[in-house]
Specification:
Family: Belongs to the dienelactone hydrolase family.
Shape: globular
Protein name: Carboxymethylenebutenolidase homolog
Pfam families: DLH
Distance between the termini: 37 Å
Order of helices and strands: EEEHEHHEHEEHEHH
Largest sheet: 8 strands, mixed
CATH topology: Rossmann fold
Keywords: Cytoplasm
Helix content: 25-40%
Oligomer: single chain
CATH class: Alpha Beta
Number of domains: 1
Subcellular location: Cytoplasm, Cytosol
CATH superfamily: Alpha/Beta hydrolase fold, catalytic domain
Structural class: alpha/beta
Radius of gyration: 17 Å
C-alpha cells in the first residue's frame, strides 16, 4: 500500500546534473523548454513534467533524448507559474498543494502548445508523454483530445482517472513492478477496464524490479542493476512514438 505520509508517488531519485540542449521560450501565457533536431521535421512530442516541474533537469534530458530521435520536443510549465513541489516541502501539505494543480485541467495550456507547435514549428503529427502527475495527464488527454496522435504514460497515477478507459488514441502505459505508490493490483484493474472498454491499440507493460521514476529519475551509470530496464523502457517509449507519429 502507498505510504500515506508520502501521498504522491514521486521521489526525486537521482537528480541529473544536466543543462539541456534546448532553450526556454514564452508561448502565450506559458513558459516552455523547447528542443529541436538539426533536420526539419513535422513530428513533435509534448513532454508533461511530474510534480517537480518543467525545469527538472531529468525531464529535459528525456526531451532532448526525443530530439535526438528526430522529434521537436516541448516541455511546458503546466503549473503556469505556480511553484513546483520541492523535496524539502512538507508532505502533510501535499494534498492542499495538489488541489491547485489538477492533471485533468490542462486543456487550455495544451491547446496553446498545439497551436505553437503547428504554427511556429511546422508540426503536423504530435504525440505526448508524461511522468507520474504528467502520466495521469497523458491518460486524460488520450481520453478527450482529438488533435494528438498517441501518448505514453510513464508511471501515471492511476487513481486520478481510474474510472475512465475509453481511449481515443493508441496509448502505452509503463509501470514499475516495485512501485510503492502504484500497486500491481491497480495496474491489473486498469488492464481489465481497458480490455472491456478500449477500442484503440494500447499496451500496459510492467518492468521487473523497478521502482517509481526509473526511466527518468535513475541514471543508468550509477544504477547498473537497473540499466537494462532503464534502457528498455526508453527504447520502448521511442518505438511506440515512432509507430504512431
Amino acid at each position: 500500500m502507498a505510504n500515506e505520509l508520502r501521498p504522491c508517488p514521486c521521489d526525486i531519485g537521482d537528480r541529473f546534473d544536466y543543462g539541456g540542449r534546448g532553450q526556454e521560450v514564452q508561448v502565450e501565457h506559458i513558459k516552455a523548454y523547447v528542443s529541436k533536431p538539426s533536420a526539419s521535421t513535422d513530428k513533435a512530442v509534448i513532454v508533461i513534467h511530474d510534480i517537480f516541474g518543467w525545469q527538472l533537469p531529468n525531464t529535459r534530458y528525456v526531451a532532448d533524448m526525443l530530439t535526438a530521435n528526430g522529434y521537436i520536443a516541448i516541455c511546458p510549465d503546466f503549473f503556469v507559474g505556480q511553484e513546483a513541489w520541492k523535496p524539502s516541502d512538507d508532505w502533510a501539505s501535499f494534498d492542499d498543494w495538489l488541489k491547485t494543480r489538477d492533471a485533468g485541467k490542462i486543456d487550455k495550456e495544451v491547446d496553446v502548445v498545439l497551436k505553437y507547435l503547428k504554427e511556429q514549428c511546422g508540426a503536423k503529427k504530435i504525440g505526448v508523454i508524461g511522468f507520474c502527475w504528467g502520466g495521469a495527464a497523458v491518460q486524460h488527454l488520450m481520453l478527450k483530445n482529438p488533435h494528438l496522435k498517441t501518448g505514453v504514460s510513464l508511471y501515471g497515477v492511476i487513481k486520478f482517472f481510474d474510472d475512465r478507459s475509453s481511449l481515443l488514441h493508441p496509448t502505452f502505459f509503463i509501470f514499475a513492478e516495485k512501485d510503492e505508490y502504484i500497486p500491481l493490483e491497480q495496474v491489473a484493474l486498469l488492464e481489465q477496464k481497458l480490455k472491456q472498454n478500449c477500442k484503440v491499440h494500447y499496451e500496459v507493460k510492467t518492468y521487473p524490479g523497478q521502482t517509481h521514476g526509473f526511466i527518468h529519475r535513475k541514471r543508468e551509470d550509477i544504477n547498473p542493476q537497473d540499466k537494462p530496464y532503464i534502457e528498455e523502457g526508453r527504447k520502448d517509449m521511442i518505438n511506440w512514438l515512432n509507430k504512431y507519429i
